Amino acid sequence: MEKVDLVVRIGGESGEGIIVAGEILTLACARASFEVYTYRAYPAEVRGGHSMFQMRAANAPIFSAGDLVDILVALNQEAYDRHYSTLKKGGVLVYDPESVKPHDREDLILYPCPLKDLALNQVQAIQTKNIVTVGVLAELFSIPQDKLEEVIQERFGSKGSQILEKDLLALKVGMEYARQNIPKRENLKLGGTEGETRIVISGNAAIALGAVYAGCRFFAGYPITPATDILEILMKEMPRVGGVSIQVEDEISALAMAIGASFAGKKAMTATSGPGLSLMSELIGFASMAEIPVVIVDVQRGGPATGLPTKTEQSDLFHAVFGSHGDCPRVVIAPTNVEDCFYQTIKGFNLAERTQLPVIILSDQSLSHRYETISVPDFDSIKVEDRLIVSPEEVAQGYQRYRITENGLMPMGIPGKPGAYIARGLEHDGEGTPSYDPGIHQVMTEKRFRKLNLAQNDNDVTLRWGNQESEVGIISWGSTEGAVREATNQLKARGEEPDVLYIKLLSPLPRKQIEDFLKNKKKVIVPEVNYSGQLSHLLRAYFLFDPIPLNLAGGRPFAGYEILKKIEEVL
Amino acid sequence: MEKVDLVVRIGGESGEGIIVAGEILTLACARASFEVYTYRAYPAEVRGGHSMFQMRAANAPIFSAGDLVDILVALNQEAYDRHYSTLKKGGVLVYDPESVKPHDREDLILYPCPLKDLALNQVQAIQTKNIVTVGVLAELFSIPQDKLEEVIQERFGSKGSQILEKDLLALKVGMEYARQNIPKRENLKLGGTEGETRIVISGNAAIALGAVYAGCRFFAGYPITPATDILEILMKEMPRVGGVSIQVEDEISALAMAIGASFAGKKAMTATSGPGLSLMSELIGFASMAEIPVVIVDVQRGGPATGLPTKTEQSDLFHAVFGSHGDCPRVVIAPTNVEDCFYQTIKGFNLAERTQLPVIILSDQSLSHRYETISVPDFDSIKVEDRLIVSPEEVAQGYQRYRITENGLMPMGIPGKPGAYIARGLEHDGEGTPSYDPGIHQVMTEKRFRKLNLAQNDNDVTLRWGNQESEVGIISWGSTEGAVREATNQLKARGEEPDVLYIKLLSPLPRKQIEDFLKNKKKVIVPEVNYSGQLSHLLRAYFLFDPIPLNLAGGRPFAGYEILKKIEEVL
Amino acid sequence: MVRTALDYKGKLKPTWCPGCGDFGVLTALFNAFARLDLDPNNIAIVSGIGCSSRLPGFASTYGVHSLHGRALPIGQGVKLANPEVEVVVVGGDGDAFAIGGGHFPHAARRNIDLTYIVMNNRIYGLTKGQVAPTSDVNFRTVSSPYGNFEEPINPVAFAISVGATFAARGFSGKVDQLTDLIVAAITHRGFAFLEVISPCVTFNKVHTYKYFQEKVTPLPAEYQPDDRTKAIEMAQVMQDVIYTGIFYRQEKLTYHDWISKIMEGVRPVTPKELVLSQK
Amino acid sequence: MVRTALDYKGKLKPTWCPGCGDFGVLTALFNAFARLDLDPNNIAIVSGIGCSSRLPGFASTYGVHSLHGRALPIGQGVKLANPEVEVVVVGGDGDAFAIGGGHFPHAARRNIDLTYIVMNNRIYGLTKGQVAPTSDVNFRTVSSPYGNFEEPINPVAFAISVGATFAARGFSGKVDQLTDLIVAAITHRGFAFLEVISPCVTFNKVHTYKYFQEKVTPLPAEYQPDDRTKAIEMAQVMQDVIYTGIFYRQEKLTYHDWISKIMEGVRPVTPKELVLSQK
Ligand SMILES: Cc1ncc(C[n+]2csc(CCOP(=O)(O)OP(=O)(O)O)c2C)c(N)n1
Ligand SMILES: Cc1ncc(C[n+]2csc(CCOP(=O)(O)OP(=O)(O)O)c2C)c(N)n1
Ligand code: SF4
Ligand code: SF4
Ligand SMILES: [Mg+2]
Ligand SMILES: [Mg+2]
After folding, report:
1. CATH for A139
2. Are residues B249 and B376 in the same domain?
3. Can you give the pTM of this predicted structure?
4. Is residue A192 part of a domain?
């Protein structure tokens, strides 16, 4: 089969439906069996800022949204000005001549197209300009009409038949115009292939469904960009699996409810972004002290404070690992891509039950709203770990919820069943009775920290690829995976591939795997989308070596070439 | 002059007025020109737990409350059982035979005394048992009656003359009984000397008064053990210096109000303990992002969660340094003793104004309620730094509050005067306009972190003593100073003194001083009252060396001999 | 088997000061549990932090002794996740209206079927006597040395005005009436709020047993608890007379009634199907 | 010099959606400032986070665009520290009553002399249309796909019941009346609360301009804003008619009146003397 790898970027005013257009294109391409990978950027303002959506579609695995674009759709002059320099040589510019004046460039293919006019006069609905645009693109690049109609149907079917009809009409109008007026170029054909069923999913959806699959039956949340759709998805789907979701008054209430629900016997989760995670600090300590399993998803955005609500960053690692007063064990994990969001969320629930501690999952904005094509999970191989529950016999023999054991664990009583005990945020003895004896505090603290060992045993807490013999290594975490893969793929082709270790378990750090990796390394680059080098810091503290940090204060993900450049510098 | 160094411990039921008795003794001794040093332990319950007060009085500098006691007052059997083993050989036990049955021990001097009976029958007020006890001690150890009466007068003068009279009577009754019935032993005489005026103060009072002296004119707080008396003192005293203090609905409101007050032009502070600090996380980031100076006092207690509210611990360092999402610069400092609480609080305000960042001061329970005798400050040598305020001329020339400058600082506008600007928790450009441009976020983050350099320049951010040539060092922070001094004093006598560095500035760490210290060290012990070795962690991460941690999960301070033992092990 | 109050008594002896009002609340609560013959394993008592919040520790039931101010959201989580369990949330006036005050109106609006008992001593007991949001104007404490300036919150009036479907007041000095009120609160379907006047004998020397004993009066026999405005008015009477009893009671769909309705309406799905439907 | 509305206009063009109700509030606020001839350097507009909370950024005055829910405590801090400054706190219904709801009753009880304007669009605008604590029962949004179950908070009634000494309602579609109301709120001595019905044209397709235009009615001419119970009743009328105007107004000592009284009574001391008095 011919190799297809096409990057499309649409830019315009926030509020013009750019994200919707992008998502429709993406889903249609995915259903036509392409791998897709998207990226979006939009302002914190609902209107009035600049908005951008990028989709990459290919028939081979892809790890980033691509650095340069093949097709740029500029809906206004600002979009053109901001993005034209990212167009590849020989790339295509689709634009509305009414609002965009491109340079006179020979190296580009210009496709002027009266998008606004078509929406206004032929569809009689200015707000369908985005779908007209989709139609134009569909015709130019042979994106299958049936898949597009299917997606539009699903998307707007519930909005009343009038809106749906307008949108279907807009699609046709766009296609028709392009067919009549724009001579097609063959090298930018997408077209359709028929393949196996694939799942197209965003990082946030993967988290929401991972939770449901892991057995989560209680969710409480408060809206916050870029985590809100986890709440929205679970408000809709939770009742369908017999669970409860609730939008509450703030993030403190959200985590408190999740803790209450878990105490009551349900696997429970909340999802937020940095500001919410900060507000939850005290309750994280409570769950740790009272040994109540709970999962907290933090979809990171630019910080601190309100920061850059719609931009990506990986700067909540410090707070996730160290936030909350006192000596407070917790588990922190991070998925590296959209698919991994699904698996790490399941992992998060497993670790919560396995350690009876709070688990923080660090995703980020760049994963949250990105659609990727992922394989259908091999459900049989997914392990879901359930709660250690006290049996009536154990209760009869004298159950102590907080008794000190070798691995630190005791089974939990569940309200409604024998095993009544008091969960407590005050220091306590084995029975849960408050105790301010320094000796008891010592052994209880040791016990709570001991449980962290139970999180370190799995093999899948790191991901390693590349040339294990290389003396140059990359250690990183989270969503930088795509850019790093792009870079290492290029180096592999040249025979210069470094060794790469992704750490998915960030607290406690997997000592064995990291030490193994470091054995033969002379230079280790640690790329992170944060200013202060938060993983670098942890590696320094725990492994006493001096990594080469590669930091970006945030606001956008790394591009593959930035990683490549750094590796080349170091090699 | 004859050397005096006497340790008195009083133990009994919480609620019997043990703390009050101890404080009266302490103040009287201090006014009689002794150095005093106290320690108290009490349960989180108001009643029904065990309570203990210890005072050490000496006519030479002292650094701890002492390990073994000369005089034990046991008001009930539990007090005797808990504490008799701490009595020195030849020590004195004062007890009420009605409720305490001591062992038959030859190595102790037993002074039975019907304390309850005296209070009930001779004073006609059972609640004066504590003052009767003070009377007995006063007579036995020649504590000047006039000083005691002075202190009782001040303490109960406001409670109505009846209560005062009863208490003065109780003192006399106790003295009289002892005079008549107990043969005095000469070796345990305290007596009075006349010396210069000394200040007797607790750590919390030192912080409150340090703040006032530094120019703080706004305080907001929410009660929490062991920080509450800072609130109580400032509720009383702030109006006397023309400032405003307010008790608010929670710690979030407390810090928000302080930030608002500082924005409005007043130096402002809040004080709390771990749970409150956790709740303040998001606002710490806001103050950092909006560059509003503010001082946050955290009087640490045992954590996590509600933890051990009345016990000491040094486990909030991680949260102070790393808490709050995002890359969030802040200054963290820690006083090492009661006197230092005064000076570090002034320092905290200076650094807040100097860096326009939030400053966290880490005190702890063991400092908070401990009375120490301190020298009258040399007020003329204390430097108070004031705010950089924009001038009308600068405003006229086009003032940008957040313009990027070399050291990161710009003067602040103050409401009511020219210089209007918007303080913002969203990322912003030089004018304060929101900006989500990754490039701006990069330079603004750099700028905010750059201001930390301004905190590192002072000489007094570390304290060093001992033998600089020694290859064995101790690095520590906070209230462990006393125990470490006890240990090193003993080693000095033997000619084995190690080198000691106390770090008072914990974020950013003073690089020069620490590197200097480490130059010739082979072994560095880091004692901390926390489980996870929080300063050890920071030292590992920033200086890539492997210290020898000495940790106690908390609940009580180190004793001098524990430090000594560790040094001896290492030597 | 019919249970007695003793069945709910925990191992731990209450650590309150002798004479503390909270003893009366504990006794009445156990009486009420016994009268309703509830299984201790099927009760969860959830509290925040404060003297009053120690209560769960003295019972043999499940309990959460949580963080200052977080009793209500934790209690709601318990009930939403496990609706068969009888949830009783307890705590102090500071816990409820100062640090926890942001949760209260929402718990009321949601009408989740639980009982919330606030032991009002008009002071912060545990932290040794600071002014509370329920303290009178001019009240002097260690933290209000010049007297309190802020209008006190009237818990019952507040609860009714934010939507509680049951609001009552008892007095820890009248254990029998209090038992009746707790029984009524627990059996009420929806958010049931009960203020208990529960004197702090150690720190509140103004609002003592004696002070209340002279004022506390049951609501008039003819009083009907069905009029919000009237209920708020009666709750605010605070001078010579302080009423006790049920001020307001309303039948309304509970949060669970809504959830059940929805669950009936939706098309159920297995987690696997849900994953596979993403395309 | 007499100022005009233009003197308060900042450099930044408002970034609200065309037609957003918040434009009307901004206009009325500038009008009110001009009418009172306030010095822009002597005004501090403090907000939280939300579409409405962007307002300070569009003015030439001092401002704090703070964190979600924290506008009121920050605003109180500004006023307590610098009582000469005119403090206007602004924000959305979610900011005020969801995440910030714990601060509201205390701000009201304290009666600090500031103005609090809540732009109520009955939805979360900035985060793109989730249900708010002011949303009607059954209201469907992206986060309440089966409809809202919770009783809405009525801002004016809530404010009065927790002790606000001034409570009014305006409509962003009636800028002149709104200007009058803002002037009245600012000139009121004490905590002045003003709800502005301010439609979100992008996400709330039910509570539109049209919806409100048909219902909004000034309070009857003979209405006297001196009776709490009556005021709450009128504020709760929400069916065919929604009243605007001043529902309640009360003269009461402000927090600063109390502070001034105390300052007069205490013996002043220098910081040095204070330190030396510890012995
Ligand atoms: C976050 C936090 N802030 C403050 C405290 C300290 N604290 C514990 S209980 C309490 C108030 C107690 O008053 P109330 O809730 O009325 O209970 P009471 O003791 O009077 O029964 C306070 C301020 C805390 N434990 N946690
Ligand atoms: C701690 C925190 N939680 C959540 C958010 C996300 N957030 C921003 S504004 C907002 C609500 C907006 O609604 P409202 O206050 O009514 O203002 P509007 O946009 O409708 O004017 C939310 C949930 C945040 N910024 N910070
Ligand atoms: S301090 Fe007051 S509230 Fe607390 S236990 Fe004692 S009497 Fe009860
Ligand atoms: S989303 Fe709604 S509230 Fe926000 S600016 Fe647009 S119209 Fe106004
Ligand atoms: Mg109380
Ligand atoms: Mg809103």
Report:
1. 3.40.920.10
2. yes
3. 0.92
4. no
Neighbouring C-beta atoms of residue B236, cutoff 10 Å: 17
Residues B449, B478, single domain; the answer is no
Q: How many CB atoms lie within 10 A of CB D265?
A: 9
Range of the domain at B444: 392-455
**Neighbours, chain B (3 or more CB pairs < 8 A):** A, C, D
Contact call for D149 and C258, based on CB within 8 A: yes
The per-residue pLDDT for range B515-556, each reduced to its tens digit, is 999 999 999 999 999 999 999 999 999 999 999 999 999 889
Chain B segment 77-96 residues within 8 A of A by beta carbon are none
CATH number at residue B511: 3.40.50.920
The residue contributing the CA closest to ligand 2 atom 23 is: A223
Residues, chain B: 571
- Give residue ranges with CB within 6 A of ligand 1: B 222-224, 251, 275-276, 279, 306; C 49-52, 68, 91-95, 119, 121, 123-127, 132
Q: Which of A430, A455, A480 is the last residue of a domain?
A: A455
Query: What is the number of other CB atoms lying within 10 angstroms of the CB of residue C221?
Result: 6
So what's the pLDDT on residue B187?
62
Give B461's strand partners: none
Residues C64-87, buried b or exposed e (16+ Cβ, 10 A)?
A: bbbbbbbbbbbbbbbbbbbbebbb
Weakest-pLDDT range from A141-145, B190-194, D167-171: B190-194
Q: Does pLDDT of B351 surpass 70?
A: yes
Nearest-Cα distance to chain C for A291, in Å, is 12
Would you mind telling me the total number of residues written for chain D in this entry? Answer: 279
What are the beta bridge partners of residue A296? A270, A360
Q: Give the number of whichever ligand sits closest to the CA of residue A310.
A: 2
pLDDT at A193 over 90: no
Which CATH homologous superfamily contains domain C5-277? Thiamin diphosphate (ThDP)-binding fold, Pyr/PP domains (3.40.50.970)
**Which residues does chain C have with pLDDT short of 50?**
none
State whether C68 and B306 contact (CB < 8 Å): yes
Chain C residue with minimum CA distance to A207:
C275
Q: Would you say A280 and A320 are in contact if contact means Cβ atoms under 8 Å apart?
A: no
Q: Is A113 exposed, middle or buried (0-12, 13-18, 19+ CB in 10 A)?
A: buried
Residue A162: both structure tokens together = 């009038």
- How far apart CA A431 and CA C170 sit, in angstroms, is 33
Q: Is the pLDDT of residue A186 over 60?
A: no
Pocket flag, ligand 3, residue C115 (CB < 6 Å): no
Q: Are residues B216 and B364 in the same domain?
A: yes
Domain boundaries, chain C: 5-277
| pLDDT for A283 beyond 90 | yes
Give per-residue pLDDT as tens, C211-234: 999 999 999 999 999 999 999 999
Residues A171 and A264 in one domain: no
Mark whether B283 and B232 lie in a shared domain: yes
Residue in A250, A376, A415 nearest the CB of C82: A415
Contact B249 C128 (CB under 8 A): no
* Among the ranges given (B137-146, B267-276, D45-54, D204-213), the one the predictor scored with the smallest mean pLDDT: B137-146
Token pair of A390 as six digits: 């006290």
Give residues (CB < 6 A) around ligand 4. Answer: A 46-47; D 16-17, 20, 22, 51, 121, 125, 200-203
Q: How many CA atoms lie within 13 A of A196 on its CB side?
A: 9
Query: What gap in Å lies between CA C157 and CA B373, rounded to an integer?
Result: 51
B22 and B169 in a single domain? The answer is yes
From atom 6 of ligand 2, which residue's Cα is the shortest distance away?
A224
How many Å apart are CA D228 and CA D242, to the nearest integer?
Answer: 18
Which of A307, A437, A532 has the CB atom closest to B426's CB atom? A307
Cβ pairs A/D, distance under 8 A: 62
Q: How much is the mean pLDDT over chain B?
A: 92
How high is the pLDDT of residue B46? 61
Q: Specify whether A448 is located in the same domain as A475.
A: no
Q: What are phi and psi of D40, to 5 degrees?
A: -55, -30
Our count of domains for chain A comes to 4
